[in-house]
Amino acid sequence: MLPRDLAVRCRRRVRVRGSPLNRQQHHQPTSPHLPSNHPHIRPIISLKLHLNALTATDNAYFYPWRGSRALFRRHLLSDRLPGPADHAEWLPESAKLELRRSGVKFMDITGYEDLGALNAERFVAAAVKFPKEPKYQEEVGPVLKNLTTKNMKANLEIFTHFHNRYYKSENGAASGKWLYEMVNKTASADPKIKVSQFHHPWGQHSVIAHIPGKKSNKTVVIGAHQDSANLFLPSILSAPGADDDGSGTVTTLEAFRALIAQGFKPDNNVEFHWYSAEEGGLLGSQAVFAEYEKQHRDVIAMLQQDMTGYNAKTIANGGPDAVGVITDFVHPGLTDFIKTIITEYCDIGFTETKCGYACSDHASASKAGYPSAFVIESTFDDSNKNIHTTEDTIDKLSFEHMFQHAKLTAAFAVELSHL
Predict the structure, then answer these.
(1) How many angstroms separate the CA atoms of 159 and 180, rounded?
(2) How would residue 402 be classed by pLDDT, with cut points 50, 70 and 90?
(3) Phi, psi dihedrals of residue 174, rounded to the nearest 5°
(4) Is 23 exposed, middle or buried (0-12, 13-18, 19+ CB in 10 A)?
(5) Where is the signal peptide (predicted)?
(6) From 11, 162, 201, 224, which residue has the greatest number of CB atoms within 10 Å?
């Protein structure tokens, strides 16, 4: 998961290794976008990032220099989701880790500057209306009885034994291969389910399981991210990533398994996604949703499960165990429906919380124009502070709490498969 943002106002100067880059050194174009044929638009390792703190009045868009990436910070003055016309700033590749260590959220939009542009026109009059309450209890009930904590624990023990799952590392590629094989094995009971790798140039590939719908081409997506990162030396140091986001990975995998075991045959397409490179600025999910936008895929709902296992601080503070429901930068109608699913199918309640802009992969779906929502293990104040270190380990997690997230995930899939 991307760390919480600092409310830092973006200045019109960008400092790189102590040297300010101002308009005299790198002038701003009059358009918020560089032309596609501009000689600097695709430097060898250019990076363009959406960052969390750009104000509506700042124009922090710079021509890239060699070794730079472009970042976009979220508006402080608006809760609207970013679009292709929003401003970005160019920063070096090394700035990503510096921003992460400082708690600044961002989207690395290099190559995905126009994500959402096509859907902005297509979906103007096609707003999705979500139910007021669940109504497929008879179908959901047997699926929930198939869920077990045993499978989640066994899978997470394997997943956290990789030294790290950093998306640029050999370990990240190996863990991604294991996950792909595990999803394939799980899906083998139904030959109609297609499991594929969405290939990325950095080596760790996203995994997508497609359960075909019987009646429509609409698609419901459930996501988690498979990568982990130690923010000090991500390619070298250990990052077990048990909670972030090993917990979300095995939670959604268990819901996927239980649905298949029950012979799930949805009306709409239902897909499970395990994204690569969330820790690099939502790179994997942006690539996936950019492709879906090009293919004119009709994604009617996307739910992200990022960190589902830690409730120790909530319990220590005397609060009731609860699912954290994110309320900012999400689709309000879908979020309200998720609250009703928790109330109907989970043994614990929900608590509302906020995470700021671009805190996980649901932001990529939203930017592409698709309704998205995000749930987490608790309020952000009570969430796991061991993430992005060697201490994000399995012994700190509650599998009973993860079980509640698995129930939510399976119920979400069934209920919206009929929308």
Answers:
(1) 12
(2) very high
(3) -70, -40
(4) exposed
(5) none
(6) 224
Q: Which residues are catalytic?
A: 225, 244, 278-279, 306, 388
Q: What is the pTM of this model?
A: 0.85
pLDDT (0 to 100) of residue 88? 73
Over residues 14-66, the pLDDT tens digits come to 222 233 333 233 333 333 333 334 333 333 244 666 665 332 222 222 223 33
Print the domain residue range for 98: 1-114
Do the bridges between strand 269-275 and strand 206-211 make them parallel or antiparallel, or are there none, so unpaired? antiparallel
* φ/ψ of residue 142, rounded to 5: -65, -30
Question: Could you tell me if 233 and 275 lie in one domain?
Answer: yes
Tell me what pLDDT residue 211 has. 98
Please give the DSSP secondary-structure letter assigned to residue 244: I
> Is 318 in the same domain as 384?
yes
Q: Is residue 341 part of a domain?
A: yes
For residue 293, is it within any domain? yes
pLDDT at 307 over 90: yes
Same domain (yes/no): 200, 341: yes
State how many domains the chain has. 2
**Cβ proximity of 30 and 76 under 8 Å:** no
